[in-house]
């Protein structure tokens, strides 16, 4: 296996553009620019790979053929309706099929490079469109690139694929596609569906017939910050991954769990997000010989948060983490100000949070986060032969 890291990138990925919409491709442009300015993309062993669009056969592993036809046809039909398209969340735009297929193709290229041993890790920051369903668009997502990539891995012979989703929203589309498939373990940490789209991802959603235990959900209360989120992560994810023994780890690393994100109400810092990427890399190293495919996802603090968070992700995937105390380069600040003059441009790569947490314990007076942790552990740990009360797990 090569020790290289593949970063799948081309400016054509910015054509996934929903117009005047929260999912603004400038966040991806500024991420790549910041990573370049900090030298992350020039490291030894980093290979930039331009994507090609996913073909219909790859997309049809997840999406219905009539839905693919609808995505193609919608931009030229002024009276089009249906399939979740033409809504405020998923407006129709020119080239919608082509740009969506390109995002999916980028995640396919990342997954294939890692599975075939051409790279140890791979990243597609433009990906992570985890809400798209087999027959409809949802939550800003037209084609579900993580699910398309997982389906390709199964076709290539993978027997155990783990997917960990740290976006603030439940990874509902990926869960839906693999809900009865015991070869795929989906784990999602998100703000409670009682407060946030898409209204799914309760702790008792644990997999369908034949796939019992294949879905894991940790819904966290609004206001959860670094300490609570990281306690929840470490109380659920490592033990379940160790029991499942994945051959490859895919992660959706939406940055909308940050306290500045305008669309949600978790309270993480960039430092806490960085800590999660380090933990995911360590688990891939421990369990999968380092095989890790990471995508972007949500994140709507376009200048203030997303570029820093995903530059940390790229740095963790390509080698040494970026020092949180590092300054953002002046050339990047100028670009960010030029692109979005109304936004506050961060001067440093940190929010001055320490990212520490107290490990979960089943004793004492539980808070809302601890109650969520226990509900998830009780729901799914026994399905993997694990004791939900054991704090060592």
UniProtKB/TrEMBL annotation:
For whether the record's keyword set contains Nucleus, the answer is no
Which keywords, in A-to-Z order, does the entry hold? Acetoin catabolism
Q: In which pathway does it act?
A: Ketone degradation; acetoin degradation
Ranges for the Histone deacetylase domain?
21-315
Query: What domain of life?
Result: Bacteria
Q: Which family does it belong to?
A: Belongs to the histone deacetylase family.
From the Swiss-Prot or TrEMBL record, give the protein name: Acetoin utilization protein AcuC
Q: Which organism is it from?
A: Plantactinospora mayteni
């Amino acid at each position: 296996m090569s020790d290289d890291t593949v970063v799948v990138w081309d400016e054509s990925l910015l054509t996934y553009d929903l117009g005047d919409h929260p999912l603004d491709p400038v966040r991806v442009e500024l991420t790549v620019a910041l990573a370049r300015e900090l030298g992350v993309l020039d490291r030894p062993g980093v290979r930039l790979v331009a994507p090609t669009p996913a073909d219909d056969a790859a997309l049809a592993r997840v999406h219905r053929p009539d839905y693919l036809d609808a995505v193609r046809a919608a931009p030229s039909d002024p009276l089009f309706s249906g399939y979740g398209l033409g809504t405020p969340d998923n407006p129709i735009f020119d080239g919608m099929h082509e740009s969506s297929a390109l995002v999916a193709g980028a995640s396919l290229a990342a997954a294939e490079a890692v599975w075939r041993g051409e790279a140890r890790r791979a990243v597609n920051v433009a990906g992570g469109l985890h809400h798209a369903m087999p027959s409809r668009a949802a939550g800003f997502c037209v084609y579900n690139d993580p699910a398309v990539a997982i389906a390709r891995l199964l076709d290539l012979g993978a027997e155990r694929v783990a997917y960990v989703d740290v976006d603030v929203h439940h990874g509902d589309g990926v869960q839906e596609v693999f809900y009865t498939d015991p070869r795929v373990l989906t784990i999602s940490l998100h703000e409670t569906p009682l407060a946030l789209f898409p209204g799914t991802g309760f702790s008792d959603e644990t997999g369908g017939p034949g796939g019992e235990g294949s879905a894991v959900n940790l819904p966290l209360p609004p206001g959860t910050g670094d300490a609570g989120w990281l306690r929840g992560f470490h109380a659920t994810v490592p033990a379940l991954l160790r029991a499942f023994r994945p051959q490859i780890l895919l992660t959706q690393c939406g940055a909308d769990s940050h306290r500045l994100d305008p669309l949600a109400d978790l309270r993480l810092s960039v430092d806490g997000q960085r800590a999660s990427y380090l933990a995911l890399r360590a688990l891939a190293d421990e369990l999968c010989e380092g095989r890790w495919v990471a995508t972007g996802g949500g994140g709507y603090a376009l200048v203030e948060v997303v570029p820093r968070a995903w530059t940390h992700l790229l740095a963790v995937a390509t080698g040494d983490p970026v020092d949180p105390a590092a300054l953002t380069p002046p050339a990047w600040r100028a670009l960010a100000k030029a692109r979005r003059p109304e936004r506050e441009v961060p001067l440093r790569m940190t929010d001055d949070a320490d990212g520490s947490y107290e490990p979960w314990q089943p004793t004492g007076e539980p808070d809302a986060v601890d109650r969520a942790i226990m509900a998830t552990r009780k729901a799914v740990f026994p399905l993997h032969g694990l004791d939900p009360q054991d704090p060592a797990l």
